[in-house]
């Protein structure tokens, strides 16, 4: 730990208000809870559904779901890694999204035991309806900091993330 940071803390005890993992988890949970209001009320999506939607929307050919000979989409197993969710949470959310008509599932030609998931045009339209509201919400949150502070924050997040991987 850098000397400046260590000098601000009493080495003999743990202060949660100064403990970075605690502060980051609380901030992430607060952001997630407040942001969820954007898609839960108006679009009736759960947090796992939103996370799956946004990950699938960012894939090439998303929203062009058609059963074809060319494999497209992402497996549920890959979504667990991409969206940092456990298998059962992804499975439940995928079932809901299939039932709502937001996803299509096809057998992976490279692994007949696996299925690939892709957004339907309805799922892509849902994403296109939510994305501007998400960006607007983020802009409102970021009004609390300057552009320079934002760049610093992103740089620090990248640095800490790299340290952990």
- Major sheet details: 3 strands, antiparallel
Look at the structure and give the mean pLDDT.
88
Order of helices and strands: HHHEHHEEHH
| Helix-strand makeup class | mainly alpha
How big a fraction of the residues is strand? 5-15%
Low-confidence stretches: 65-70
Helix % is: 55-70%
Describe this entry's structure for a reader.
This protein has 165 residues and is mostly helical. Helix content is 61%, strand content 10%. The chain contains 7 helices and 3 strands; from the N terminus they run αααβααββαα. It has a 3-stranded antiparallel beta sheet. β2 and β3 (111-119) form a beta hairpin. α4 (76-82) packs across α5 (87-99). It starts with a helix and ends with a helix. Residues 65-70 have low confidence and may be disordered.
Brief characterization of the structure:
The chain is mainly α. It is built from 7 helices and 3 strands, in the order αααβααββαα. It starts with a helix and ends with a helix.
Descriptive terms for the model:
165 residues; mainly alpha; single chain
Helices and strands in order, then pairings?
Elements: H1 3-8, H2 20-43, H3 47-57, E1 74-75, H4 76-82, H5 87-99, E2 103-108, E3 111-119, H6 121-142, H7 147-164
Antiparallel strand pairs: 1-3, 2-3
């Amino acid at each position: 730990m850098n000397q400046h940071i260590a000098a601000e803390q009493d080495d003999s005890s743990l202060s949660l208000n100064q403990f970075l993992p605690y502060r980051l988890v609380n901030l992430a949970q607060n952001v997630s809870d407040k942001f969820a209001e954007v898609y839960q009320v108006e679009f009736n999506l759960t947090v796992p559904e939103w996370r799956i939607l946004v990950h699938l929307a960012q894939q090439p050919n998303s929203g062009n779901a058609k059963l074809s000979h060319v494999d497209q989409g992402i497996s549920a197993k890959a979504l667990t890694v991409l969206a940092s969710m456990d298998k059962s949470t992804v499975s439940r959310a995928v079932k809901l999204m299939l039932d709502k008509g937001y996803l299509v599932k096809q057998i992976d030609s490279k692994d007949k035991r696996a299925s690939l998931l892709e957004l339907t045009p309805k799922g892509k339209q849902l994403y296109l309806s939510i994305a501007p509201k998400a960006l607007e919400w983020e802009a409102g949150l970021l009004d609390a900091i300057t552009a320079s502070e934002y760049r610093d924050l992103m740089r620090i997040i990248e640095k800490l993330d790299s340290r952990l991987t």
